Amino acid sequence: CFKCKAPSGGGGKAAVEEDTSRDWECEKCKNRNFARRGECFKCKAPRPKPQEEEGKDPRVERERKLAAAIAMGIDPAMAEQVIQDPRFQDSIDQYQRMQKAQEEQLKAQ
Predict the structure, then answer these.
(1) Higher per-residue pLDDT: 6 or 84
(2) The pLDDT value given to residue 82
(3) How far apart are CA 65 and CA 79, in angstroms?
(4) Is-contact 32 23, C-beta < 8 A?
(5) pLDDT tens digits for 32-56?
(6) In the chain, beta strands by DSSP E
(7) What does the DSSP 8-state code read for residue 85?
(8) How far apart are the C-alpha atoms of 95 and 83, rounded to whole Å?
(9) What values do phi and psi take at 61, rounded to 5?
């Protein structure tokens, strides 16, 4: 239970392991939030930017996102709008991990 932290009764459903490694803690209220959230669902404080993103050039980041969106098959006319969606960052990260793994497999062969 979210409120009282009691274990769930199960309800006959099999437990599904969920990746919580990218979840984040609100700096204001200390509530744990899903990785997909751009603001705390409890107090609505904005998600803090990761430290590695603070020094990045926004123009380079935009071009990187656009290139990934187009490579992922998103219509170039819609790519600009799509990359504005905060949920798209997870897709970019996943796509880049997949690309890197494929490149490493090719090198190993």
Answers:
(1) 84
(2) 86
(3) 9
(4) yes
(5) 998 888 899 999 999 887 766 556 7
(6) 24-25, 32-33
(7) S
(8) 14
(9) -65, -40
Tokens 């959230």 belong to which residue?
A: 37
Task: Let me know if 78 is exposed, middle or buried by CB neighbors in 10 A (0-12, 13-18, 19+).
Answer: exposed
What tokens were used for 74? 């998103």
Tokens representing 94 are 């996943």
Report residue 47 as tokens.
């998600």
24 bridge partner residues? 33
Of 15, 11, 39, 13, give the one whose Cα is nearest residue 26: 39
Q: If DSSP codes are grouped into helix, strand and coil, which group holds residue 25?
A: strand
∠ CA 84-90-93 to the nearest 5 degrees? Answer: 110
